[in-house]
Specification:
about 500 residues; alpha/beta; Rossmann fold; Serine Threonine Protein Phosphatase 5, Tetratricopeptide repeat; DNA Cyclobutane Dipyrimidine Photolyase, subunit A, domain 3; globular; DNA-binding
Amino acid sequence: MAGPQVIISLDPSGRAEECLTEKDTAVVWLRQDLRMGDQPALAAAARTHKRLVPLYIWAPDDDGEWAPGAASRWWLHDSLKSLRESLEVAGSGLILRKGEALPSLLDVLKLSNASAVYWNVLYEPAARKRDEKIIRTLKKYGVEVCSFNGSLLSEPASILNKSGTPYLVYGAYWKRFLAEQIGTPLPEVRKLPPLPASSKHLRSLTLADLALKPKSSWDSGFTETWRVGEDAALKKLVSFCGGNIGDYAASRDVPGCEGTSRLSPHLHFGEISPRQVWAAARQHRGAGASTYCKQLVWREFSFYLLHHHPRIATEPLRLEFKDFPWKGTASQLKAWQRGRTGYPIVDAGMRELWHTGWMHNRVRMIVASFLVKDLRIHWLKGAKWFWDTLVDANLANNTQGWQWTSGCGADASPFFRVFNPVLQGKKFDPNGVYVRRWVPEIARLPTSKIHAPWESGINLDYPKPIVDHGSARFAALKAYDDIKRIKRGGPR
DNA sequence: TGAAATGTTGGGGCG
DNA sequence: ACGCCCCAACATTTC
């Protein structure tokens, strides 16, 4: 047996971590990095060990109240299938387990006689807490842990402002972010060390055992819309960078046309890395590519905020919003969820979400503003609905997005910025293409009335607005004014 | 990564 | 020619 080897982490942010290994088998614990390209943990393990056990543990209970929702599980099933095929082509395979991560991991380590575990870091609060505990336990057992940054362009902990505190304003963060050295993506792992000879005893489950796919088939729209997996993600990146990225600055706001990259679910599951996306986008000059990069860094900023303020997944960053007088009824929430609010642009978005597991970002802002400000329903109710229905559901982005719209987050849209669903529709869906696609019962209206059907005088099988925007806006501003007064200690 | 209210300006009609 | 009003267009302020 060779002497101890020293592995230097491939982490391009410069935080080299040293790993000592003595034995020849390692486990690569795959989590949200379901790819072969730019895969720091897998690449390092493959270079260093004679035998590898690629492992995925379905451990929804470890995530507490943020266990993956139905749409995420749908995606995960296909993503694991695709990854397993890639691992097999490379000469390996994928061991599947379910249940709490730590005991599963210990069991696989014991059965495979592995001396090391490799993984790419997760940044969600529950995962961080769990992984810290796992690291302590593994150290006790003499198992070494080699961890890498495979899902962010930067290390959240290392970016601070001049007074040593985390940034709270995106513009300032962005300026600082540009000073980061962003590494080039690692080459795809094509050849992997084999599974241990005893791999039959590793007691892998089948993909069906994980029961990720829905029992009743509500997913036909998903199947039509998405090609899951690393190959599809890379193709999408290439085609976006070869085409729409040039017009991205303008067309990203038009939900009726395919102006965005639609990479979000691929990024969430790690079928593609942000470094790969960054590298491809940076090859372009012009406003489109730089706007796109700025959006990609919003994702960084979201993780950054969640890292420094782990409570914000359920609590407003700006604590005065804890006293906000939320209202809204269960039936209003349901109307919003089902796309029956009577405002076409809102309903179109909610139906696109239900049908495809995705919603255009401009429309996410509109429907969120409507829930929080027009219906005055707590943003967490919206966040939970998105969590269950989005294939790209991501705790950092989802939290950041909802708090931004609600005015209670970092660098948030001020609360008094209330979207008018009619004007937003006219501005960003001027020909009504998007609304007609998702709200077919009003498709025959003239474009001049498509965003305000109640003005048409035509009898339609479509609800009247469940609230009047003008008065809802007025009431929301009044409620906001009240919490501001309370904060100042004034009269109620 | 708003919208609405309010203010300002300037041209044209008209007495 | 002048003052006055109207109003659109644009700018600024406020919510």
